[in-house]
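User: Um, any thoughts?
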Amino acid sequence: MSRRQAREVALQALYQIDISGTDPLLALDLLLEILQRGLPADDLSFARHSGSAVFQEQFTLEGEDRDFALDLVTGTVRHLEQIDGLLGQYSKDWALSRLARVDHNIMRLAVYEMLYRSDVPGGVAINEAVELAKVYGNDDSARFVNGVLGKIWQEKVQGP
């Protein structure tokens, strides 16, 4: 498994948490259990995306990749207020409540990486978010995600 797949698992867990209010650790554990059992993607309502790297085969998320996914989920949830504050500030003309939930969670994940993961370059976090948006979002998601995250990276993280 790769970090890209770990991000995809983290996104799935964050989406589940956002929709149902599930405990972050429970959401991640349940998702990993489903994936380990190798259920077909058709059985997973949240995994019907043909571009999904995760749901193409049975796998186990272990070691550093599991730790990475766990940190992405728990860290994003822990810093949700600050992350959503930035997203609200930089999502020009879009109230957070109007954003598609998948786009919102993709950007939450990337902002967490940009602010709190010194081992992930900002450009990588943005590129990975854009790739997730291409798979899970609508036709405009990738461009929107790239624009918002690029502004946050440029103005807030790198500084003027």
Remarks:
- Helices lie at 3-20, 24-36, 63-78, 80-90, 101-116, 122-136, 141-157.
- The radius of gyration is 15 Å.
- The chain has a mean pLDDT of 82.
- The chain is about 65% helix and 0% strand.
